[in-house]
Amino acid sequence: MTLPLTEAPRGPLSGVIIADFTRILAGPYCTMLLADMGATVIKVEGPGGDDSRQWIPPHRDGVSTYFLSVNRNKHSVVLDLKDPADLETAHQIVDSADVFVENFKPGGLERFGLDAASVAERWPHLIHASITGFGTEGGRTMPGYDLLVQGMSGFMSVTGSPDGPPQRAGVAMFDVITGLHTALGIMGALHERARSGQGQHLQLDLLSSALSGLVNQTTGYAACGNVPRRLGNDHPSLYPYGPFPTGDKDLVITVGNDNQFARLVSTLGVPHLAQDERFATMKGRNSHRDVLRPMLVDALSAATADEWFTTLQAQGIPCAPILDIDEGIEYADRLGLHPVVDTGSGDQAVPTIKNPISFSRTPVGYDKAPPALGADQAAVLAWLEERRRDGSPRSDGNRDRAAQPRIPETRTPG
Predict the structure, then answer these.
(1) Looking at residue 408, what is its pLDDT?
(2) Alpha helices in 273-352 (DSSP H)
(3) 115 is annotated as an active-site residue
(4) What's the pLDDT at 407?
(5) pLDDT above 70 covers what percent of the chain?
(6) Biased composition, Basic and acidic residues: where in the chain (predicted)?
(7) pLDDT for res 2
(8) Biggest CA pair distance of the chain
(9) pLDDT for 194-245, tens place per residue?
(10) pLDDT for 409
(11) Alpha-carbon distance 126 to 290, whole Å?
(12) How far apart are CA 234 and CA 100, in angstroms?
């Protein structure tokens, strides 16, 4: 089988090959971003497939949209690592890769010769990224579910109404943040390997990513011992900063400095509030929230949220309506951001949310729909066999990236 090269190298990671042994969200989100940027991603799934294939509702033609959201531009193969032949195939895939990404439980890959020590010895030029829930020491036996991390990181303690229960986020946000951190680490390691020719092991865990992602809240404790509490929709350091009722529904207003506050109250018809010593500074507004809030709400009641949105925006005052998901996507489209892209072509195409990065010279691509389980088995096995026959070099950090073939798209519905 002759594997065609791409007509022209596309994407900043064109030629990079990634062995993706991840499932659920953090790892697949990371590898999808890299695939969008041109990397060839071989998604290795167990006989039952990625768990998220079964996470329904919602679905598109019976396929979980959870799975569709993080698995475009990938090639799916099914391997049972307990089977010697399949394990050998898995090793061949890793042998052909620049990057090996996995989110097995700590110690789970040792018996397959794919643990960090074995990988470093056998493939010293490979970049190996491991994702866990709570690290490899005291938390090594803890399952890595995002909601557990939302609870244990402190996130839920600062989310929700002051007099209500702790609240989870409406998305598995720390899985997503960890996926972003993993992609960033891989990019850094690829850059370093271009100089040294050496691979390395990257370790990431959801809890560390959560504590980093909580930025000012966690640093407030680390730097001065402050323990934040739930403030509902209020900001701990800025005011007014959150949703406020208007004549019909809430409007988000985000005032970040004293000048913005002066323009806000002037536009609302209560300019004297900017001269009141209780409200003239951010420190003062934070200290007198309970006094200031009803004054702002009374002024905002004179018009609807949409009317205030138009009026305040015209004055350069940051504000926004609270939209549903469908409205948010439609609004982004009206702004010219074109958030929905078709991945794949023809009857294979699946609408997905676009990669948020725009490159001026090497754009991301959406060539391959999220694959059905094992859809690319034959193509990947043939590709490996051709590499074996040709004596293709292992990943050494210095090979000709442009010469790396693409696995052809398999026309199997995703």
Answers:
(1) 56
(2) 282-287, 289-300, 305-314, 325-334
(3) no
(4) 64
(5) 92
(6) 384-403
(7) 32
(8) 81
(9) 999 999 999 999 999 999 999 999 999 999 999 999 999 999 999 999 999 9
(10) 52
(11) 57
(12) 42
DSSP string, 355-371: PS---SSS-----SPPP
C-alpha dihedral sign at 309, 311, 314, 315: negative
- Secondary structure class of 374 (helix, strand, coil): coil
Q: Which of 98, 115, 146, 175 is catalytic?
A: 175
CATH class of domain segment(s) 17-214+341-403 = alpha beta
Q: What share of the chain is helix, strand, coil (3-state, %, to 5)?
A: 40, 15, 45
d(CA 268, CA 293): 13
Domain ranges within the chain, ordered by starting residue:
17-214+341-403, 250-321
Model confidence, pTM: 0.92
In sequence order, what are the beta bridge partners of 250?
245
Evaluate if residue 1 carries a pLDDT over 80: no
Domain 250-321 has CATH 3.30.1540.10: yes
d(CA 55, CA 146): 15
384, 385, 387, 391 alpha-carbon torsion, rounded to 10°: 140
Q: Which residue, 48, 50, 61, is CA-closest to 28? A: 50
